[in-house]
Amino acid sequence: MAYVLGVDVGTTRTTAAVCRLDGARDAEIALVVPSLLQLTDAGTFSVGDVDPTGWTASGFVRRVGDAVPFSLGPESCPAEELTALLIMWVIGEVVAREGEQPRHVAVSHPAGWGPYRRGQLYAALRQVGVHDVTLVPEPFAAAENHAVRSRVLPDSSLAVFSLGSHAFSASVVKRTSGRTFELVNHVEGIDHHAGADFDDLLAGLVRGRLGKDGFVSALECEAAKRAFGPAVVISGVEVTRDEFVEEIRPSVDHLVCTFTRALGAVQPDAVLLVGGACRMPVIGDALSAAVDCRVLAEAAPEHSVAKGAAVAARLVLVGPEAEPEPIETSVLVHTREASLRFPVGEIARPDDEEFTAPPPRPPVDVSPLELPPRRVKRVARVLKPAGRRSGSRSRDDDEDGR
To answer: Which of 46, 216, 285, 364 has the least C-beta neighbours within 10 A?
Structure first.
């Protein structure tokens, strides 16, 4: 069956979703894999697994457009090249499962990216053979995923609260008369705690009771953080929900204050929670107390952007005017509400003339850094399938993901 593909490359996890062209407009998760690339001694790349004998790169998507490359043993690889290699591998895995190429591919990116960074990723994707692709801002993808299930009226606004393992952002998007979306405001968190920091705070509580020689399981902390009952037991130590909430309250308040500043005078119809760290009930509770609207999240909010990117890819082919208005459903739940929905805007096609030079930067007096010469022009020769993750639920699917 003909399909389109959405890919969300997060700091921790990369997620792919497919949307059928002659079936339901909703998307389904096809693949979840760690956002890791490793160069082996044999000169090949593998995805997902870490071998102590190789050189591993992670977190590269947030550095797309950075002039300083990643050093992987004998190779110097720009962040956009590593990102393109991972996307190419993901597409290949989905094609192997589906038995045919996707009709179109949409890749999400942070809303703060300008023409230069988008152009760098477009160029890297073309160099690895991925041509028919659209780049979609993350809050647009989140909104598009929501819009599949719930009616969003023209001129209404949606707020997107995104909290993953290593990144936080707050955005406001507005529905246009053409059933697309435009970005009203966007804030990237700089000094805010994210999912991994909350894991560390929980581990600190446990370690303080075990003593300096006590062992604290990071996996237990990550799982307990999002599924707190009245109490959890980690490494033999009981921590109550109230104790954990008290420990992270300053960090949560900081996130919510930044989010409300990003809203400004806008009164959104709903707040959409995106990213695995939003599974923590305290996040939804704090937002519900701060805003006068619905606070909505899917059961797996770390998958919302990938699914929305797939829906956006479908819209590129069929157009928003060809899609019927959705029927209200109750598929997302959080705090006092039980429905969800996300929209995406018109995506401009890449214009090479727009991407010829990076944006101007203020003058800085620094000593020049001599970078090692690249020994191999192109490193996309071989990608070995490794660490494959299916769309079925597994422990890896429960990671914060972004």
So the answer is: 364
